[in-house]
Amino acid sequence: MIEGYDAVKYYRPTNLDDALKLLAGDPDARCISGGASLVAMMNADLVQPSALVSLKAIAELQGIRSFPDGLIVGAMTKHQIVANDSRFTGGLEVIRSAAANIGHPAIRAVGTIGGSISLADPSADYPAALVAAEARIEIASHRGRRFVPAHEFFITYYTTALEPDEMVVAVHLAAPPGASVSAYRKVGRTEGDFATASVAFCGAFSGGQCTFARVAVGGCGDTPVRSAEANALLVGASPNSASVARAAEALVGACDPVDDVRGSADYRRLLVRRLLPRVFAQASQKAAN
Ligand SMILES: Cc1cc2nc3c(=O)[nH]c(=O)nc-3n(C[C@H](O)[C@H](O)[C@H](O)COP(=O)(O)OP(=O)(O)OC[C@H]3O[C@@H](n4cnc5c(N)ncnc54)[C@H](O)[C@@H]3O)c2cc1C
Fold first, then answer.
1. Which atom of ligand 1 lies nearest, measured to the CA of 195?
2. pTM, rounded to two decimals
3. Average pLDDT, the chain
4. Distance between Cα 164 and ligand 1 center (Å)
5. How far is the CA of 188 from the centre of ligand 1 (A)?
6. Residue nearest atom 27 of ligand 1, based on CA coordinates
């Protein structure tokens, strides 16, 4: 080692227990999934981990498992795997759609769901979709396992409910009530950019009218934005109802967007007003087919 420089240790455990022991033994160690963001952050000196714990060789973290009551997505599942998996149907299609909207093919081939949500960029695609789908995040440490609802997992900008010795193991998606539908729309500055604003919708329709609705907005606050008022206004609505515009206003009222390189706060509010009717109509159309 060159004098005056600290070497970053690199571990590649083959089971979860060993990975959790490594994290417990060093508060400055970090998991590395695809490295899509972490390596760039290290290059920019934004983080200086003492050790990297690669999750690549841990079988438990890989892939998507079906259960009668839903899907479990392992933390190391890459965006392209989710984007191409036909099991994400109905109310869970929103997850597949969010994955397909992430970056461009090279990013989707490297980035993982565990890495994306642990980074907790509020303009990322998964967070709003997972909140709308009422996902639960499975977290492990050497102290045991716990589950956190997606809307409680995201605390603020780049901050999650994870303690330093914890890692995301999987995302649990319960199959929403029968005949549910979902849709996701994002507006970014360019193809492959993070969202200036995004809206995720999960719900159901009967006779053209919405019977339940869960909406979440990305890119318009420090965490995915929810509004119980907007959800309530959508129930009983059809795509042309005036209450859809009222729901969009309620959603805009719950947002706290910033002015940044991706757009002004006012532009983001405008996007939410435009995107909610679109995802609602898209979901309604899916229900009718
Ligand atoms: C050019 C570019 C464009 C992008 N565009 C988009 C976009 O449009 N939309 C979008 O949503 N995302 C976008 N991303 C983000 C990308 O999709 C990745 O999801 C994200 O960078 C995380 O990458 P990763 O999975 O390789 O995690 P890493 O980079 O390996 O890790 C990211 C962070 O999460 C921690 N971590 C990783 N795995 C776990 C775990 N299981 N448990 C606990 N902590 C963990 C790491 O310690 C690190 O702090 C883009 C990234 C790049 C580089």
1. 8
2. 0.96
3. 96
4. 17
5. 18
6. 115
Which residue from 204, 72, 135 is spatially nearest to 127, judged by alpha carbons?
135
pLDDT at 222 over 80: yes
Q: What are phi and psi of 214, to 5 degrees?
A: -135, 120
Domains of the chain with CATH codes: 9-54 (3.30.43.10), 59-174 (3.30.465.10), 182-288 (3.30.390.50)
Q: How far is CA 176 from CA 80, 135, 138, 173, 236, in A?
A: 23, 10, 18, 8, 18
* Atom 28 of ligand 1: nearest residue by CA position: 35
Q: What is the pLDDT of residues 6-32, one digit of tens each?
A: 789 999 999 999 999 999 999 999 999
> pLDDT for 160-174, tens place per residue?
999 999 999 999 999
Which ligand 1 atom is nearest residue 124's CA?
A: 11
Q: Give the integer Cα–Cα distance in Å for 276 and 226.
A: 12
Q: Which atom of ligand 1 is nearest to the CA of 126?
A: 11
**Within 6 Å (CB) of ligand 1, which residues are found?**
30-38, 40, 55, 75, 79, 102-103, 107, 110-112, 114-116, 118-119, 124-126, 162, 167-168, 193-194
